[in-house]
């Protein structure tokens, strides 16, 4: 939705949903079932299946607490986003809200940074998928990365309805796998079958060096990995412009966040670390695969490896979906090349999708040059760029509340409980994570890259403002 359409909406010329549908030109092909599974699957990817191995090695069982606290913060962020979505559901989502409540430059930075986040995340997921392939075949990571990138690009040329259906089944596989792992671990703890049955016990959560074997500092240093695991939960906001009934489906999807985190992260880690000692896990190895191998269930490890491969490809597929939409939102607001506004007959932003997929091929080069460090590099940069979107969501929601109090914006039907205090708490928590990233030598690379990206965006915005001042202003 452009700024002109926002003016019309506040003038009472049309409902938010109608303006969104007509102004953006997308097809509302995503139903409640698909939105729910996209929301669930969005938070289940390489951060849990691959990155958790490194986090367990760094923090031990206390990683469970880190996921629980970070999960609470994520819920605050999602409720803030939900309040904004019910105020105005558009596919531009938080970039639109930043543009409206903070300023045009904030919208410009948010749109391009979130686009970059998904390009980098696509590289991350393809890297992870290539890593999983080495479990079966000894082939170069860059070969697998190239093949997967090309296949997923082709899959994203389909209609949004088919995209939603594919994501539904991708997410179903991930959910089934985690629930299966939890049930198997529960069976080992109660019945005692498999090689791990004799030693499995809940006491392993504190008997192997204590609950904080690496100290509180070790737990804090995993926050970057933990927050990366939750990146993409905000994807439901991007789907708002293509949801059949956003005012019904989106609140339901957002309210599932607490139990998603409780089951798929906290619950899964409690069960796994009760069956297999935390000292058996190592960086670069999926904790799910390692757990099955420790149990003596070799075929189970192969099955889980296939599931986590599916999870990585699913997340990359979602990334390709969102990049095209974000580029089109920028173009519609005059903050990106007009060519990105073009849609196919099926409602797909072909040019933006193609441009983004081409840049994701950089992941192939990273896997070729430094296959061992590829995942660590892209995780660090994806985390800082993804957290910018969360910061903008929280700040926009705080500013929106002030606009409502002044009578300048209608009140949302889905108010965030505890806001704005919960939003301020979440902002402080994100700030602490960024400090931890600065301390961590491996994650520090992202903080080096962030100023360069900010400088590039600043110069680009000045050029935009000099050429077309109208697109660098936002009138409510």
Which key phrases capture this entry?
single chain, 476 residues, mainly alpha, Amino acid/polyamine transporter I, 23 helices, 0% strand, disordered N terminus, transmembrane helix
Written description of the protein model:
- Its main location: membrane.
- Pfam families: AA_permease (PF00324).
- The protein is 71% helix and 0% strand.
- The chain has 23 helices and no strands.
- The model is unreliable at 1-23 (pLDDT under 50).
- The chain is mainly alpha-helical and 476 residues long.
- The two termini are 13 Å apart.
Strand proportion: under 5%
Order of helices and strands: HHHHHHHHHHHHHHHHHHHHHHH
**Count of extended strands:** 0
CATH class: Mainly Alpha
CATH superfamily: Amino acid/polyamine transporter I
Give a quick rundown of the structure.
71% of the residues lie in helices and 0% in strands. The chain has 476 residues and is mostly helical.
Sequence-ordered SSE layout with sheet pairings:
Layout: H1 3-10, H2 16-24, H3 32-42, H4 46-49, H5 51-59, H6 63-87, H7 93-101, H8 104-133, H9 141-155, H10 160-190, H11 204-207, H12 215-220, H13 223-230, H14 235-238, H15 246-255, H16 257-275, H17 287-295, H18 298-332, H19 350-360, H20 362-369, H21 374-405, H22 421-439, H23 444-467
Helix pairs in contact: 3-10, 3-15, 6-13, 6-15, 6-16, 6-21, 6-22, 7-8, 7-21, 8-9, 8-18, 8-19, 8-20, 8-21, 8-23, 9-18, 9-20, 10-16, 10-18, 13-21, 17-18, 18-19, 21-22, 21-23
């Amino acid at each position: 939705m452009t700024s002109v359409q926002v003016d019309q909406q506040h003038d009472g010329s049309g409902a938010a949903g109608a303006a969104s549908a007509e102004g953006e030109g997308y097809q509302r092909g995503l139903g409640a079932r698909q939105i729910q599974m996209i929301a669930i699957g969005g938070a289940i990817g390489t951060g849990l299946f691959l990155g958790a191995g490194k986090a367990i090695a760094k923090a031990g069982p206390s990683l469970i607490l880190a996921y629980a606290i970070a999960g609470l913060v994520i819920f605050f962020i999602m409720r803030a986003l939900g309040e904004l979505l019910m105020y105005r559901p558009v596919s531009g989502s938080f970039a639109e809200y930043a543009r409206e409540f903070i300023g045009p430059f904030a919208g410009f930075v948010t749109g391009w940074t979130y686009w970059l986040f998904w390009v980098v995340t696509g590289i991350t997921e393809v890297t992870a998928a290539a890593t999983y392939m080495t479990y079966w075949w000894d082939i170069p990571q860059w070969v697998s990365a190239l093949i997967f990138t090309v296949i997923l690009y082709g899959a994203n040329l389909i209609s949004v309805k088919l995209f939603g259906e594919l994501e539904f089944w991708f997410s179903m596989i991930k959910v089934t796998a985690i629930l299966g792992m939890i049930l198997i671990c529960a069976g080992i703890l109660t019945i005692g079958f498999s090689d791990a049955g004799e030693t499995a016990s809940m006491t392993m959560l504190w008997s192997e060096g204590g609950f904080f074997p690496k100290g509180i500092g070790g737990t804090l240093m995993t926050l970057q990995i933990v927050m990366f695991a939750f990146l993409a939960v905000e994807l439901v906001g991007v789907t708002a412009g293509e949801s059949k009934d956003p005012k019904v489906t989106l609140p339901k999807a957002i309210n599932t966040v607490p139990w998603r985190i409780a089951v798929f992260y906290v619950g899964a880690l409690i069960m796994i670390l009760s069956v297999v000692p935390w000292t058996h896990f190592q960086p670069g190895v999926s904790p799910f695969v390692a757990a099955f191998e420790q149990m003596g269930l070799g075929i189970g490890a192969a099955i889980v490896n296939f599931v986590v491969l599916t999870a990585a490809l699913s997340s990359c597929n979602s990334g390709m979906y969102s990049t095209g939409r974000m580029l089109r939102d920028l173009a519609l607001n005059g903050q990106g090349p007009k060519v990105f506004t073009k849609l196919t007959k099926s409602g797909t932003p072909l040019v933006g999708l193609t441009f983004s997929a081409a840049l994701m091929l950089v992941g192939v080069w990273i896997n070729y040059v430094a296959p061992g460090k590829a995942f660590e590099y892209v995780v660090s940069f994806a985390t800082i760029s993804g957290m910018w979107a969360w910061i903008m969501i929280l700040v926009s929601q705080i500013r929106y509340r002030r606009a409502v109090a002044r009578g300048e914006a209608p009140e949302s039907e889905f108010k965030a409980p505890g806001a704005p205090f919960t939003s301020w708490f979440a902002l402080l928590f994100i700030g602490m994570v960024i400090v931890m990233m600065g301390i961590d030598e491996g994650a520090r690379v992202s903080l080096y890259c962030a100023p360069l990206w900010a400088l590039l965006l600043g110069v680009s915005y000045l050029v935009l403002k000099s050429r077309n001042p109208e697109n660098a202003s936002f009138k409510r």
